[in-house]
Amino acid sequence: MEAAYLPPEILLDIFHRLPAKSILSCVCVSKYWLSLIKTPDFVSAHHFNQQSAISSSSNPHPLFLLRLCVGSALVNRYSIHRDDRRFTHYAEIKPPSSINNQSFSIVGSCQGLVCLMHDLYASNYTIILWNPSIGKTFALPEPGVTFETHGGFEALLGFGFDSSTNDYKVVRVVRLLEYEEIAIEVEVFSLNAGSWKTITSTAPQYNIVERGSQAFVNGSVHWVATRPGNDGGGDKNLILGLDLKGEERFRELELPESLKLERAMFLTVCGYKESTIAVFKRPYFTEAESEIWVMEEYGAAESWVRLLTLGMYGGRLPRALGFRGNGDMLFELAGGEIVSGDPESFEIKELGLWGEAGYSVVGSFMETLVLLDRSS
């Protein structure tokens, strides 16, 4: 019997079990196979199967996406690695030439998609969603808040996934600069809807760090923000979260006392063990130490603990890139070497990875077909 005439339910059952790269080969076999695969229902079902596989014991080593910049020309090199003891190389990724340059920075990586923004100059509103597994990109429409509509501004992005609707969302927090008081506008792009909407009415009027860090944890995007002081008190830092599900509500997470008065631009938020957050305190130019704090119980201010204080290593302070599944950390050392370190013993494991110092980025990853059924 020819494969093209197998009952569709049997073919779909087979396709659902295949990795994304194998599916790409299948769409080239026949128009019939293509018609079964290139549909929103199949893409969504395949994505769900991939999520289930990651959480199962049969797939103990999830994936990481790593971007290194190499050579004097700072050429981007993307690769996928398993989160095993050796950080084993899984695949090399060649991004489209349109985004493979230093004009684009990575906002975040979530559920198999990477969000990039053009940040060479403020009046460029190019935001791209990229699926490295299938090599496809999707350019977001221009947001509502622009230089032409609102004048000068500073912008901060967040990227995450709404599991209640299987929808990827990009959040844009904008501080308008032509007002004496803090004036914040917030827009949310929904991939399902293909459009932006404004949720400014619910947004706290807090200061933000332009192009600052973001972390997607527990269904919410998190940033470092600064709350204006009341009754003569000074401004204080906090973590501002936006739940991407349902009514898209904001919430505030208190920081440790020692971080509330630090310069917000020196604080970086990231995910920790999938269910809570951590904050890296980078040093001022005159300081010789940096700190890593973790919130052991998400939302509980009293659960913050200082996990590690970092001093000089090889003539330079290590730059924390993120946490691995077992709680170890990925660091960038002097000269751009990427290593894995135990935050308790600070035992270092070399991974044989090098890039130009200051440019390396790491994020969680999974293979998916999302964007396969969409026009670029």
TrEMBL record:
Annotated InterPro entries: F-box-assoc_dom_typ1 (IPR006527), F-box-assoc_interact_dom (IPR017451), F-box-like_dom_sf (IPR036047), F-box_dom (IPR001810), SCF_F-box_component (IPR050796)
Domain (F-box): residue spans on this chain: 1-51
The organism's place on the tree of life at top rank: Eukaryota
Signal peptide coordinates: none
UniProt cross-references to Pfam families, sorted A to Z: F-box-like (PF12937), FBA_1 (PF07734)
Name of the featured protein: F-box domain-containing protein
Organism per entry: Linum tenue
Lineage summary: Eukaryota, Viridiplantae, Streptophyta, Embryophyta, Tracheophyta
